[in-house]
């Protein structure tokens, strides 16, 4: 029985959210019975943006720091393919819609879908803005491809935009500083969770949250 909710304001194409992936996964794996995870996609690239050289260079430098701090791997297909190719488009709304579509089919698949999208992007260099790629990822989780496509069609557009607006509203209410922002809610009270110091040390993050949970009677 969950006694707390971990609110995770993220973006599938945010490198620092990829850095936080091991922290969130550790909470799910270790405290999943007591802490419910709630995802809030924030829309880092809320309009399609073609990856120009200046932005690509900025991302490369950020990725180097992320890899150093978190130990998260960046694959050659991403570094030498996706980031280096002309015409690569960054657009957060399709992968956010992919997470929402998976969630609508099976609530337990929302976070695995986010992880699959992050890994496909940063390790395999796949174009996760494309619905066909998202469908393939959903199928790797055991979801029916046709059912996913139908669910994706339903959440695309207005439902996804409203979700992003709600996520940004929550970010403002929490006083968060962008993506990722993590907050723990217990008995209706929410508090921001510092996490930057825990990159590469998931157990520390889990212990920090465990210490805040109500005692088990």
From TrEMBL:
Gene3D superfamilies referenced in this protein's UniProt entry, alphabetically: Glutaredoxin
Stated name of the protein: DsbA family protein
């Amino acid at each position: 029985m969950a006694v707390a909710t971990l609110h995770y304001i993220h973006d599938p194409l945010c490198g620092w959210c990829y850095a936080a992936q091991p922290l969130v996964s550790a909470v799910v794996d270790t405290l999943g019975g007591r802490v419910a995870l709630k995802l809030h996609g924030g829309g880092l690239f809320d309009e399609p943006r073609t990856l120009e050289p200046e932005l690509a260079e900025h991302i490369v430098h950020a990725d180097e720091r992320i890899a150093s701090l978190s130990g998260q791997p960046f694959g050659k297909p991403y570094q030498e393919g996706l980031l280096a190719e002309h015409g690569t488009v960054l657009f957060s709304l399709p992968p956010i819609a992919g997470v929402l579509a998976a969630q609508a089919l099976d609530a337990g698949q929302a976070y695995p879908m986010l992880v699959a999208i992050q890994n496909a992007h940063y390790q395999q260099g796949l174009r996760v803005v494309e619905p066909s790629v998202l469908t393939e990822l959903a199928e790797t989780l055991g979801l029916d491809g046709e059912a996913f496509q139908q669910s994706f069609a339903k959440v695309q557009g207005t439902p996804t935009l409203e979700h992003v607006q709600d996520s940004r509203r929550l970010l403002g209410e929490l006083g968060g500083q962008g993506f990722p922002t993590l907050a723990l809610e217990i008995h209706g009270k929410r508090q921001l969770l510092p996490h930057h110091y825990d990159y590469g040390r998931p157990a520390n993050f889990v212990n920090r949250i465990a210490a805040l949970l109500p005692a088990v009677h």
